[in-house]
Structure formats: structure tokens, C-alpha cells
């Protein structure tokens, strides 16, 4: 057997082996949908304002790792630790969240891209119509992007960006489908 033929056969078998591994790692549409459904369900449960208020901050914090780095950008600021994020969530809930009367968290759009078996990105827009403590109608609204990673079998948010929608009194029309499960 010639050297060129041996080299060709070696390269062929290496390429064939690599191709099989790559195809075996690809996610099927069913697996993508399952991952998207899992992270979307986690987000919806964490932000469910109809659940008892006493655990609202804890429900929100359930999306994040128990310790370590989490990058959260909002309002022109950035936090990089779980502790500072927890302080911010608790502050929001104690100063604003628990004062909302009859709040309803409404997801306008939720787009989920599953990047691989251990990473997904959820971008969503939302509204929170409620009444102030004085009974006046009020609404908070915005958009968020959450990057999820699966670590030790648990999906957690490792990076996020939140932005408030300017208050115009008019809801922003939706132009995208309710949910897209990405490529």
C-alpha cells in the first residue's frame, strides 16, 4: 500500500469518526423543544405573581446559582455576584413588588434559542398591570434576555439584561410569534 493511499485511508476514517460524533451531538427538534419548554417553564414559575407573596423574591432567586458569579445588567448598571443580585431582587420586591395590588405578569413574547444541550437563551417582553396602594392603575413593562447554562443537572441564569419600557400609556404591539424555539 502506498503512503498516499495509507494517508488517504487514515484521513477518511478520522473524518468519518469525527462526523459521527458531531451528528450524535446534534439536538433533535424534540430535544430542543424539551429544553426550551424546561427553561420557559422555570421563568414563568419564578415570575408568577399569583403565587404567595412571601416567597416572591425566593422564587425569582431560584433561577440563579446558589453562589458565585452572575452577570446582570439593568438600568445602566451591572452586577457580577449572586449576593449583589439577591440584594437587588429583595430591594425591588420590598420597595415595589409587595406594594402592587392585583398584579398580573403578562408575557407578551418569549423567544427561546437552544444553543446546545447545556445552553439556552430566553428573550422576552412583559407587562405587569396592577394598582398602586392608593388604588390607581399602573403598569410596569420591559424586556429581558436570560442566558441559561446547565450545571450539575440544573438550569441556571448566568447572564441577563433587563430593560424597562418607557411609560407611554400604550402597549407596544407584538410583531413576533409567541414563542420560537431556535436553531
Number of strands: 7
What CATH calls the topology is Nuclear Transport Factor 2, Chain: A
Q: Mean pLDDT across all residues, rounded?
A: 84
End-to-end CA span:
44 Å
Q: Strand count, sense and closure of the main sheet? A: 7 strands, mixed
Note the beta-strand portion.
25-35%
Mind telling me the C-alpha Rg? 22 Å
Order of helices and strands: HHHEEHEEEEE
The helix fraction, in percent, is: 25-40%
- Please give the CATH class: Alpha Beta
Biggest sheet strand line-up: 2-1-6-5-4-3-7
How many helices? Answer: 4
The secondary structure category is: alpha/beta
Give the arrangement of secondary structure elements.
Blueprint: H1 3-25, H2 29-46, H3 56-61, E1 71-74, E2 77-79, H4 82-95, E3 106-116, E4 119-131, E5 137-151, E6 154-164, E7 179-181
Parallel strand pairs: 1-6, 3-7
Antiparallel strand pairs: 1-2, 3-4, 4-5, 5-6
Q: Could you characterize the architecture of this molecule?
A:
- There is one protein chain.
- With 183 residues, this protein is α/β, with parallel strands linked by helices.
- It has a single domain, classed as Nuclear Transport Factor 2, Chain: A, CATH 3.10.450.50.
- The chain is 33% helix and 33% strand.
- The protein has four helices and seven strands; from the N terminus they run αααββαβββββ.
- The chain has helices at residues 3-25, 29-46, 56-61, 82-95; strands at 71-74, 77-79, 106-116, 119-131, 137-151, 154-164, 179-181.
- The protein has a seven-stranded mixed beta sheet with strand order 2-1-6-5-4-3-7.
- The protein starts with a helix and ends with a strand.
Amino acid at each position: 500500500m502506498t503512503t498516499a493511499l495509507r494517508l488517504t485511508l487514515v484521513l477518511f476514517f478520522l473524518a468519518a469518526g469525527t462526523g459521527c460524533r458531531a451528528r450524535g451531538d446534534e439536538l433533535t427538534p424534540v430535544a430542543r423543544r424539551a429544553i426550551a419548554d424546561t427553561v420557559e417553564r422555570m421563568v414563568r414559575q419564578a415570575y408568577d405573581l399569583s403565587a404567595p407573596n412571601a416567597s416572591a423574591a425566593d422564587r425569582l432567586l431560584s433561577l440563579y446559582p446558589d453562589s458565585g458569579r452572575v452577570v446582570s445588567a439593568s438600568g445602566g448598571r451591572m452586577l457580577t455576584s449572586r449576593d449583589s443580585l439577591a440584594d437587588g431582587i429583595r430591594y425591588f420586591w420590598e420597595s415595589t413588588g409587595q406594594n402592587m395590588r392585583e398584579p398580573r405578569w403578562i408575557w407578551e413574547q418569549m423567544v427561546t434559542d437552544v444553543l446546545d444541550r447545556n445552553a439556552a437563551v430566553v428573550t422576552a417582553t412583559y407587562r405587569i398591570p396592577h394598582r398602586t396602594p392608593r388604588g390607581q392603575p399602573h403598569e410596569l413593562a420591559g424586556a429581558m434576555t436570560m442566558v441559561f447554562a446547565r450545571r450539575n443537572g440544573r438550569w441556571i441564569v448566568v447572564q441577563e439584561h433587563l430593560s424597562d419600557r418607557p411609560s407611554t400609556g400604550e402597549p407596544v404591539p407584538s410583531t413576533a410569534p409567541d414563542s420560537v424555539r431556535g436553531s
